[in-house]
Amino acid sequence: METACALVDRLDARICVLESKNRALPQFSANVSSFMERALAEKGIHLMLSACVREIEGDCMKLSDGSALDFDMAIWTAGIKPSPFVDRLAYPKKNDEWILTNSCLQAFDNVFALGDSAWIEVGGKVASKTAVEAEHQAKQTARNLWRYAEGKALKEYAILAPTDSPVALISLGCDSAVGVYGGMCITMPSRVIHALKGWIDKSFIDHFK
C-alpha cells in the first residue's frame, strides 16, 4: 500500500494493487481497511480485492478466476515467511512455519526464538511481526539470557503490539501518513505523523545497519 502511494505521486502511470483477501490491509480492523480503500481511491489507485495471482508469464499476470492483467512492471509483496534455516530446525512450529515459544520466548531449554522466526502467544495475545515488537522481544531475551546464565527464574514476556490491537504508521505519500492504534485511525496532523514515521524508520536503519 505504501509503495503504491509513493509511486502514484511520482509516476504518470496506472497503478493497481491486488489483494487476495476481500479488504485492504486485512490484518487491521475493518475501520482501517475502509479508510485505506478510500485513500487509495482518492489517489486514483485501482484496488482489486479477492484477486489471487496464479502465475506470471512475461508481461501478463494470470489470476485464479481466469482473468489476466497486462503490466509493464510488477512489484511482489508476499508477506512474511521464516528463513530456510528455520524450516530445517526440528522444533515444534505453528502452521509448520514459525517456531513455537513459551511465555518467556523459549523454544527449548536454552534455545530462545523471536522476531519473524517465532510464533509468540502470551495470555491469549499473539505478537505482531513488526520491527518495534521484534526489538522489544530482543531486549527481553537479552535480560532472560542473563537470568538463565545466573540460574535465576526467567521473566514472562509482555507483548507490546498484539495482532488484535496493532500499532502502525502507514505512509500515504505526499508527506502524509496515518497512525493506527487498535481499530482507530489517527489522521491528523498527517505531516507530523509522516515526519514521525520517517524518523522511526531512519532510526531503525541507522541502529541495525
* CATH architecture label of the largest domain: 3-Layer(bba) Sandwich
Major sheet: arrangement of strands: 3-4-5
The mean pLDDT is: 90
Inertia-based shape: globular
- The N- to C-terminal Cα distance equals 25 Å
The H-level CATH homologous superfamily of the largest domain, spelled out, is: FAD/NAD(P)-binding domain
Strand content: 15-25%
Name some characteristics of this structure.
FAD/NAD(P)-binding domain; 2 domains; 15 strands; 209 residues; three-stranded antiparallel β-sheet; three-stranded mixed β-sheet; alpha+beta
List the helices and strands and how they pair.
Elements (H helix, E strand, L loop, with lengths): L1 H7 L7 E4 L10 H13 L3 E4 L3 E5 L2 E4 L4 E3 L13 H5 L4 E2 L3 E3 L5 E3 L2 E2 L5 E2 L1 E2 L2 E2 L4 H19 L17 E7 L2 E6 L2 E3 L3 H19 L1
Parallel strand pairs: 1-2, 7-10
Antiparallel strand pairs: 3-4, 4-5, 6-7, 8-9, 11-12, 13-14, 14-15
Polypeptide structure, described:
By secondary structure, the chain is α+β, with helices and mostly antiparallel strands. Helices cover 30% and strands 25% of the residues. The chain contains five helices and 15 strands. Strand 4 and strand 5 form a beta hairpin.
Short description:
This protein is of the alpha+beta class and 209 residues long.
